[in-house]
Amino acid sequence: xxEEPLLMTPHCSRRHALRLLTGTALWAAGQTLxxxxxxxxxxPLPLVQPSTFPAVPVPGAVQPLAPGTxxxxxxxxxxxxxxxxxHRCEYAGNGRMEAAHAVLLVNEDDATHARALHLAxxxxxxxxxARPSLAExxxxxxxxxxxxxxxxxxxxxxxxxxxARLGGFLDTALSESARxxxxxxxxxxxxPEQLEPSRELERAPVFVGSVAGLAAQxxxxxxxxxxxxxxxxxxxxxxxxxxxAAALSFDDAPHPIYAPLLLDTLKRARVHATFFCIGRNAxxxxxxxxxxAADGHEVGNHTYHHVRLTGLPMDTVEDELRRCNEVLRGxxxxxxxxxxxxxxxxxxxxxxxxxxxxxxxxxxxxDPADFxxxxxxxxxSRLAGHLRQGGIVLLHDNVLESLRVLPQFVAYAQRQxxxxxxxxxLAGLESGSA
Length: 434
Hints:
Blueprint: H1 14-21, H2 25-28, E1 86-93, E2 98-106, H3 113-130, E3 136-143, E4 157-162, H4 166-170, E5 183-185, E6 206-207, H5 211-227, E7 234-235, E8 245-253, H6 258-269, E9 274-277, H7 279-284, H8 286-294, E10 298-301, H9 314-332, E11 338-339, E12 345-346, H10 348-356, E13 360-362, H11 376-386, E14 392-396, H12 400-415, E15 419-421, H13 423-427
Parallel strand pairs: 2-3, 6-12, 7-13, 8-9, 8-14, 8-15, 9-10, 11-13
Antiparallel strand pairs: 1-2, 3-4, 4-5
């Protein structure tokens, strides 16, 4: 049960906010302004950190393990008989439905779309047979040579098969693959060059620039906390007037096991959220992005390869944002309005490029560190302690603890009179507008 800390609703005019900002001389000197007083139980807002803020490297491509945290429990696996190409088949549930993901590896001389589709038919059939309670099965077929796990070199084929669509999927031949819209065939005959993804956890916004630039960013952050809204292409905090609301956001989408579970959870909770998608994930699993948009959620840019942008050449940064935008717009038919830099690291150059593409660089007020697997009780307490009008909640789309806590958190927010919605709604900007 979520504890209910005392919540404070800001009521201040812009003139009063600007008067408060005159006390920021210490920040301009590169020092940290004392955190504002807060009611008991309220956790402090994150402060923009300098580039010396240490990164926390995250090994692996699934659940990271950072210092001082505990590992996540391994997902249960299914054995599929007489399928030597099977690498693994895992499943998970949200308490109301279960979904599975089968990963198959084929040798280079067998890496054709026809062979991959045949194996996908076999794997999906056997997965449903092995666990009849499954509501949906995803399958990803990779080339064995160069396989790097989820988030590495793109699969040869992917598909998503709800149990009600099993017959239609099995009847789909390669020559008529377009008939089954939840099937993706990789058009690249040769895997393109990949950038190494960042495994850094988003813990605080990190500004890479001068001391004066950092001071200016902290002033903008304080202004946003006092008066809310978008300032100079930045969104630190949503509006503080015009109704009690907070944004719910998920990073790193989409993921083939968790996407249907998370969307089902949000639908039952009757809330909408913003999904900051990694372009390469969206490209390989476009039907999940279509599901996100069809359910009324918002799609945001989280770069194409999930790379740390600071330190990269400007043309590479431009390419990362452009490619992700193009993939997402090609799937949803809508322009992308919001961008979240991986690891929270940004610089004047990344802000300039994002603004040129019409993107609002979006941070958060509430990061309960769900990727650190702190335990359900700790996660509940952190979510409750950060909840505030105009707040922006940061979660990740492939964390079981978040899935399990989400219904209670939504109910808690409702009891506090805080409506959870998309970043666009909170900022007063529609994601589909030009």
